Amino acid sequence: MITDEQKQLIEKINQLKKEKNAVILVHNYLNPEIYEIADYMGDSLGLSREAAKTDARVVLFCGVDFMAETAKILSPSKKVLISRKDATCPMAAMAGVEEVKEMKKTHPNAMVVAYVNTTAVVKAEADVCCTSANAVKIVQALPIENPIIFVPDRNLARYVQLTTARDIILWPGFCHSHHFITEQDVVKAKQKYPLAKVIAHPECSKQVLDHADEICSTEGMVKYAKESEANEFIVLTEVGMVNRLKRDIPDKHFCSPEFSNEQAGICPNMKKTTLQDVYDVLNEEKNEVVVPEEIAAKARKALNKMMELS
Ligand code: 13P
Ligand code: SF4
Fold this sequence. Notes:
single chain; alpha/beta; Rossmann fold; four-stranded parallel sheet; 12 strands; binds 1,3-dihydroxyacetonephosphate; binds iron/sulfur cluster
């Protein structure tokens, strides 16, 4: 439910966008009022593609830091702003660049696949990047003789390992919001909604993924639910995704399980952005994202390789 105050802000933001030749890219997990000012909503892959192709002068990113950094790397001539400077991804912080360099020395024959949820300096050390939407495809495209160091999400890495049967060296990173969803949470939700299809993000643990009818990126969930004949869906990812699904597919029923761990299902960083933040950042053109060109050039190679392979 959008309040009158929010409606006024939405109008002011839309006016500013025109004046400043700006586009606003919004990740699916953001609060639903932020969807109202989005030029594009989507998953990390879709948002990267939009960032790469836009003609706008300013790109305002509503999401977390690695996504805005990726937009800047792919669109270096654009002014890229982030809605909240303190919106970070704790999982991206679980792969330090020095540790990645050490791992490369230990496995000199290995190729490094960096999930897009990494810092720019880690992307700069990678052979190729991937997102949850294309991780399987990217890994399958790499030479069979090379083992793969996959950073930082061990759940996604294990899912890719099981799907591709490739030699993957797991990194001990994980996302709290997904990793702490338990098998018991899913079993209870299935008992409550026995006809529901289970759609899960590959950042969930294997025990949880084993219950899924479909494993996909956040935008993949929208596509699957639209095309499915089912009317009910249990959604195993950050709770904000349920809002996006309900918005696009209002005649179907979507729910998150009841989570037994308080860290499960919530990404506090994705919830920080308010409409007032968006207005202030665009109005003042503040929170500019800067990636030093020597890092950006290397990271861009890994991102472009991903675009080419997907
Ligand atoms: P998607 O690319 O599937 O939207 O996932 C991003 C993310 O951060 C998942 O936690
Ligand atoms: Fe990072 Fe997890 Fe939040 Fe996605 S949901 S941004 S992986 S902490």
